[in-house]
């Protein structure tokens, strides 16, 4: 009888141990794969060193602990009230400042259209609002007003684009600057769209320069080799065309297979402007291709 009870205890203990191991392995904070979770897109734009939310103290409340004797509380000295921070006279609440503050201010002042910016390298409420507006317009994430590397890169490319380098005709012309990765449209020597951002062919699939014309258009084209939908498709060279991007446009580690990727609003506007026969001028070369 003692041997039976001993065997039952051993089996019970083994079952508890196994269940415990399984429960610890299923950590809800992990992806259960053992690999680190991928960093979010445009992580370089985020401010590092953010404070974690403090957790409440875990004071022991064991029922076996003896209650303390009631003591007469001693009067404490009157504590001086903590002074409250005075609001900024400009209403500025602390928008993060990036390492490219002055350069971004310079480019936004040159581009215009994003609000008042002061080129002094110091973040202000007006600067923050202008940078946020710029980031939202060109799909930069997070749009928190910080002048980080991606914001600096996009602002520089747009501000340095020379629209007159495009050999546009008298009619409508779509222009693609591969070097600066920008796109715009001209009609009769005047800009009717842009410049705006793009991402063209990656290494091994470089978008070729040259003069072409739109040969085919489709609101939603299916790509047979890559099995993906291409919204607002306008083909101008073989299997190469303009279309809305299906991934984060500012991820430079990837690129298209030769097509000219656009943000949604720009793909829509280019579609509204274009038609079969629209002239397309592509020049320069994407860095790294």
UniProtKB/TrEMBL annotation:
Pathway: Cell wall biogenesis; peptidoglycan biosynthesis
Biased composition (Polar residues): 56-69
Domain (L,D-TPase catalytic) ranges: 172-283
Protein name per UniProt: Murein L,D-transpeptidase
Presence of the UniProt keyword Signal in the record: yes
UniProt superkingdom: Bacteria
Residues annotated as signal peptide: 1-25
UniProt keyword terms in alphabetical order: Cell shape, Cell wall biogenesis/degradation, Peptidoglycan synthesis, Signal, Transferase
